[in-house]
């Protein structure tokens, strides 16, 4: 078996471990952790007034992002949500106005994800809050395997300075996460126990 195949299997097993931990969290613990993680994220981001911040709409057992959205709006940020255009392509971002009802759109695989309606303006975010399956103490991120955020960050970073913040429960941390050449580095990971910074920072 090739090294790449070994790495793919390794990533799949690590992803399963972290996602099982996340799914095992009780509802009350999830809600409390999401509030703390939101406060930690905003503390790290600092001044966001006038900035466009992309925040994913949590699905399944993902960390709820509503507390973070509430804090970001109160701090003067505009909120955008990612839209999957096509497999293998970067994400598109649409502005999400307060009170605007989200609609379901095709996501990776068979997933349906909540997004702003097609009438919402497309925007280029200044900050990306990035979902993840697992992470390690060095700030390495393990995503869901689609590569959407890696492609998107690579594209955005060629055009301007963009901050990328991973967002997850602390229970998703693993001893180590494999890193490949195409993996885009995060600036930080915000969790309910604090901020994880990349190696060397």
Automatic annotation (TrEMBL):
SUPFAM superfamilies: NagB/RpiA/CoA transferase-like (SSF100950). It catalyses: (6S)-5-formyl-5,6,7,8-tetrahydrofolate + ATP = (6R)-5,10-methenyltetrahydrofolate + ADP + phosphate. It holds the Pfam family 5-FTHF_cyc-lig. Substrate binds at residue 62. Its EC number is 6.3.3.2. ATP binds at residues 11-15, 141-149. The keyword Transferase does not apply. The keyword Ubl conjugation does not apply. Coiled coil: none annotated. Keywords: ATP-binding, Ligase, Magnesium, Metal-binding, Nucleotide-binding. GO terms for molecular function: 5-formyltetrahydrofolate cyclo-ligase activity; ATP binding; metal ion binding. Its cofactor is Mg(2+). GO terms for biological process: folic acid-containing compound biosynthetic process; tetrahydrofolate interconversion. Belongs to the 5-formyltetrahydrofolate cyclo-ligase family. PANTHER family: 5-FORMYLTETRAHYDROFOLATE CYCLO-LIGASE, ATPASE INHIBITOR/5-FORMYLTETRAHYDROFOLATE CYCLO-LIGASE. This is 5-formyltetrahydrofolate cyclo-ligase. It comes from Ancylobacter tetraedralis. The lineage of its organism: Bacteria, Pseudomonadati, Pseudomonadota, Alphaproteobacteria, Hyphomicrobiales.
